[in-house]
Structure to design on (169 residues):
């Protein structure tokens, strides 16, 4: 972190804390009604009207310092103190589009292994002789599992449309 960035950050935090304290010390507009009856300025540190002027002016200058340091921090962090600026410094700056957009790519650039040309001996009907020495006989495809829902069969003939009853006159 550079010295300029650290200095601006410290001034920013101090001015923010000063604004918070100064706003909390100020009296609201409704507090002036008490001074009309003689009770408002008795406990005042700066007198009857001096506190409003001093606190409001100090709050104004603390706000000016806060906004100037905010602009300075934005400039320093965007421009960079030690690094040269580039126009292509965004979130997508290091992204490279895939060469073939018609085929989805595996994440991380890992290739998917090709299926084996010979079947596995542990899979029945794979064509690899089992340990018994004889090749398994070709079997018919298995019936679908009952837990998997099947599409309903289409009716052979469509149902005749029902005519609505006509009201009697």
């Amino acid at each position: 972190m550079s010295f300029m960035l650290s200095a601006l950050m410290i001034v920013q935090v101090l001015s923010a804390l000063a604004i918070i304290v100064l706003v909390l010390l100020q009296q609201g507009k409704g507090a002036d009604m008490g001074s009309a009856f003689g009770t408002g300025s008795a406990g005042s540190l700066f007198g009857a009207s001096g506190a409003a002027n001093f606190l409001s002016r100090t709050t104004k200058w603390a706000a000016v310092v806060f906004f100037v340091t905010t602009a300075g921090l934005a400039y320093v962090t965007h421009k960079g103190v030690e690094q040269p600026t580039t126009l292509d410094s965004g979130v997508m700056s290091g992204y490279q589009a895939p060469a073939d957009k018609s085929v989805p790519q595996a994440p991380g650039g890992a290739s998917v292994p090709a299926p084996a040309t010979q079947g596995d001996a542990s899979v029945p009907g794979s064509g690899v002789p089992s340990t018994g020495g004889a090749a398994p006989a070709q079997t018919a495809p298995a019936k679908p599992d009952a837990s998997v829902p099947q599409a309903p069969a289409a009716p052979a003939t469509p149902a005749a449309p029902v005519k609505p009853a006509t009201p009697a006159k």
